Amino acid sequence: MNIRLLTYLLFALFCLAQSDSMQAAGNGKNSQAKLAATYSKKIMTGGMFSPGKDSVSGIARRASIDTSRNNRIIGIREHSGGIYQLELDIADNQQNLTIGIYNLLGKRVIDVHQGSEFAGRSKMFDINVQGIPNGIYMCIVQGDNFRLAEKFYVSR
Hints:
Layout: H1 2-24, H2 29-44, H3 56-64, E1 72-80, E2 83-90, E3 94-103, E4 108-117, E5 120-128, E6 135-142, E7 147-154
């Protein structure tokens, strides 16, 4: 009997704590949508989510100082027959920069670049796609503190 009462009290206390943290985030539809978006973003990036500790503004503040925001793929376009060009902005000097082309099954089909690269505007990398069939591919750029992905099409 005492164990059931204790279990019920713990459950009620847990529910009360959860409702307080949810009310602290707001009870309007807009606040609930922000909370859901924050939760899904944390899940997608592999982080843990604590409704009382993490807020939308706190995550935005941490994201604004993240250097991966300054690194970006400008574009991938066909340059000449069988050669595509990747245009990339790199914010910081990278000791380990790896660029690879993957098919939609996740298999690496082309190694574009592996090594160090210095910061600067609009780095250009040539991608020779003559040995792969037409289709949809992903270009993955991975540096010391960022990872970028861009989808592109090969059609001849």
